[in-house]
What we know:
Distance between the termini: 34 Å
Radius of gyration: 17 Å
Helix content: 25-40%
Shape: globular
CATH superfamily of the domain at 1-74 and 190-234: P-loop containing nucleotide triphosphate hydrolases
Largest sheet: 6 strands, mixed
CATH topology of the domain at 1-74 and 190-234: Rossmann fold
Strand order of the largest sheet: 6-7-8-3-9-10
Oligomer: single chain
CATH class of the domain at 1-74 and 190-234: Alpha Beta
Order of helices and strands: EEEHEEHEHHHHEHEHEEHH
Mean pLDDT: 93
Amino acid sequence: MLEIKKIYHYYGKAKALEEISLKIEEKALDAVIGPNGAGKSTLLRVISGLEEPDRGKIEFLGERIDKLKAHKITKKGISHCPERRRLFFDMSVADNLKMGAYPVKNKEVYKAMKNFVYELFPRLNERRKQRAGTLSGGEQQMLAIARALMSKPKLLLLDEPSLGLAPKIKKRIFDVIEKIKQEGTTTLLVEQDAVLAMDIAENIHLLEEGKIEMRGTKKELEKEPRIKQVYLGI
């Protein structure tokens, strides 16, 4: 579904991404793990068109997208749930969801997606008239994911969905991510909490200093001494 071919990205002279190649299959849930500053969020921003790569190609459903603007990439079926949520805090929960659905022109599809996200997150339905800025941190993360889902994406990009959340809320968020996968939405998850990410993802990619240093399934990576020591605390 998504194929990244030897992507490079710079901030001035600093190399943020170096020769990144990645392939995400349809209906898969892949995770990118790694420390702060490794380039994980930059990778998602490059995929979604918020930043343009300096070299390399990105293909989505067989079409090259790395030269497209972000809103056009969204219309192709890629939705980005950004780090730190980036909600419209002065708008209600319901209006935030409407903003996420702007590419959807069919009223029946819009209604179906709204029902779907309220089923995933019943708390949002209870608070649909409440301002987003007054929600708890966990509720805000629920809303950020729900907003990203409202465009009915073929590919969902999730950037650090557990950031700043209590363990109990993290578990609830990751249970929902598992449900999203079961519904057939292809998902690329960026997550600093390697334990959570490896528990849920089919394929894991280790990104360090802008490079993919290792990749494999949970069983494969659990055998790697550095993964065990640095990321799993074993």
